[in-house]
Write a structure and sequence with these properties.
Mean pLDDT: 83
Low-confidence stretches: none
Strand order of the largest sheet: 1-8-9-2-7-5-4
Radius of gyration: 23 Å
Distance between the termini: 45 Å
Strand content: 25-35%
Order of helices and strands: HEHEHEEEEEHEEH
Shape: globular
CATH topology: Small Protein B, Chain: A
CATH architecture: Beta Barrel
CATH class: Mainly Beta
């Protein structure tokens, strides 16, 4: 019996403790395209950089942007973000256009893969999230996606509703 108590008292010292990952203080979501997951079947996503001017970055720090109506495309061997809204920064000496085309930074191999997906397979490049990464740089997560038909949208909505209803039943037990 004493051996059992001794083992129990030693257990906390024998269990290895895992270090917690440090929280990213700079990570901040700027804009999110929630409608994309409803309208498109997402196949794959990739993180890309974006070329911005100073006033655009200042405006993004205040959180004034929208990527819901935007899309990405491959033109002349370059990846572009079209129709993304970044509000003008009031105190900027040299302003920027709100909805100009912005160049996206991606490796050549990824650019070739994205070009094949859009031109050959009929996929669409949809921006999902714009955010500041842990180093404070603006990044954009784009996805290769296929447009959903109305019956596909109804199916995903029914699955989501059934999942919610199931959780409710498990929680309350009714």
């Amino acid at each position: 019996m004493t051996a059992h108590l001794v083992r129990k008292s030693c257990i906390p010292y024998l269990i290895p403790t895992m270090a917690k990952k440090p929280e990213n203080k700079n990570y901040k979501v700027i804009a999110e395209n929630r409608r994309a997951r409803y309208d498109y079947a997402i196949e794959d996503d990739i993180e890309v950089g974006i070329i911005l001017t100073g006033s655009e970055v200042k405006s993004l720090r205040t959180g004034q942007s929208n990527i819901a109506d935007s899309y990405a495309s491959v033109d002349d061997g370059e990846l572009w973000l079209t129709n993304a809204y970044i509000a003008p920064y009031d105190r900027a000496m040299f302003g920027h256009e709100e909805r100009r085309k912005r160049k996206l930074l991606v490796s050549r191999r990824e650019l070739a893969r994205l070009w094949n997906a859009t031109k050959r397979e009929g996929m669409t490049l949809v921006p999902l999230v714009m955010y500041f990464n842990d180093r404070g740089l603006v990044k954009l997560k784009i996805a290769t996606a296929k447009g959903k038909k109305n019956h596909d949208k109804r199916q995903t909505e029914a699955k989501r509703d059934w999942g919610r209803q199931k959780q409710r039943l498990l929680r309350h037990g009714d």
